[in-house]
């Protein structure tokens, strides 16, 4: 049993953690403990002790030490003495914003069921999951609050969400509805956030918690390039291999908030969920509102372990089971090779060359529809551009499939161009506030995904192409964020629901397509990594990690991303140089050495490559295919942090489940004169097993490679006399057990 209940005390146990809360005297829920697993007991008096503090309101006169502001709470409201930011807030029909949800009952269910209309976690494999449902009632408004706790014991993960149901006769307004609250007894933690912008997403920033509120979030209608819904808290001495850490992630793709508040008593409150700014939900009699799910996990074994257990959890309990363990194809995308300048002959030439190099899928990117020769036209007109492809998409797809290549197609379903037949027919389908000018972004505007007619139109168009071209893959892009949020389908008092309803429309379209065409692999994209989140991963098992394909920048982007997401979720491509985003020229081997650690692809015109480059690409593809299961399903370790020190070196490693095989890579951005000695300390090997390292005649025990390390010669020893630069170097090592 993962869920233990004694009286009004709830103890959620995973293999290595305990999460304990109880019903307090006032009928509300109080948090007691979250951390390393402890024995279950009938009561935990040391965790429930209270002291009276001066100048602080109390619950009642006969309970002067019951002061909400000083208590760890489970899902707090505002207005009854707890002045910290609350998990929710409701405006009643009389304008009151006070809620008192008291415990009514609970039930324990086997497994974990999916949510309706939202991406969610599941237990389809009988992995010993259990779900605790707590029901609380507000007697004044006759609302019920249902708190859900799904326990996945073997990954040390708990998934939480909340559901508000109006059992009364009057409409109420839900002003704030977060998914998870966790009150910790102290604030001696560092906050790890993953911030940036377009082309430099998810850079690691680690800093100590301070008094007051610190938060990350988005109001862009997407989880955003700028911030990510994954955050972690780590003790100051926690590193990759040792120490306590907590991870939090939201299964949602729209406006979000991750917040930590440190109060006057040095305690920390974590909140995560839909961003309360630009959110509201009118809850009529008999209606319910379900929050997105939030994932939390704890470990005492360092940040690598936190990432690993959450990554394994996603692969088994979030990603579409059809694709979770399925090898992802090595693809070539024509975008950076041709941009809008292509015809069928050019595309076929690239495809034929790609096939000779061992590549498995051809993806046709932007420019195949409407009359699109640049980014100013045709979004929404999902019919083939006859001037470029006079024989149609189906004919091209047949020719691609005839080469024994899979075929994929780019869409940007959520967008519309002013110069399009769709806009001329339905200007009312465009997101714009009445009597306001539309704010352009990338010469395009946003379709109202809160409008069911828009979802129906897009489903019809995309379905027709999937069937005609027998598509194997869809790249779903989203190249701008939302402005002038407004929907013609909503009355004035419900316009605050737009942002969430927009996301529900996106999810509905994804759900309809993935249900009707389960064989199609979807890859999420939003100008690269602008919607790299678990909500998208539920439907699209991999995402384009960033529009920035420069190997040096991708080292940091993929390193930061790895804290919250496994390698199988990261689309990683080799592109031409000079790189389009940075102008940097890096060696082809280095570009591949970074892209190996993800879902490998190429984004260049291989017909323009030299014979030597083609030979190198062919060898890279073969190497990746030989180790694909390891790269996509192995256990990933971060070794050297490119955000630390002078940022000149980064390294990482992936290890097979049995510990007998590994691939490690070390990257050095700039060469240095007269450098110090360098060693690479591996992880995850079997201490008593002997290994051979590629390029090395010696035999090593696993404990030597992990504790004494592998000597790395300085670069001039290997590049002297070579015309290419010694900068931007990468070294890839295979480590294989020998009997």
From TrEMBL:
Residues 27-284 form the Glycosyl hydrolase family 36 N-terminal domain. Residues 651-734 form the Glycosyl hydrolase family 36 C-terminal domain. Keywords: Glycosidase, Hydrolase. Its EC number is 3.2.1.22. This is Alpha-galactosidase. Belongs to the glycosyl hydrolase 36 family. It catalyses: Hydrolysis of terminal, non-reducing alpha-D-galactose residues in alpha-D-galactosides, including galactose oligosaccharides, galactomannans and galactolipids. The keyword Hydrolase applies. It comes from the Bacteria. The keyword Nucleotide-binding does not apply. It is an enzyme of class 3 (hydrolase).
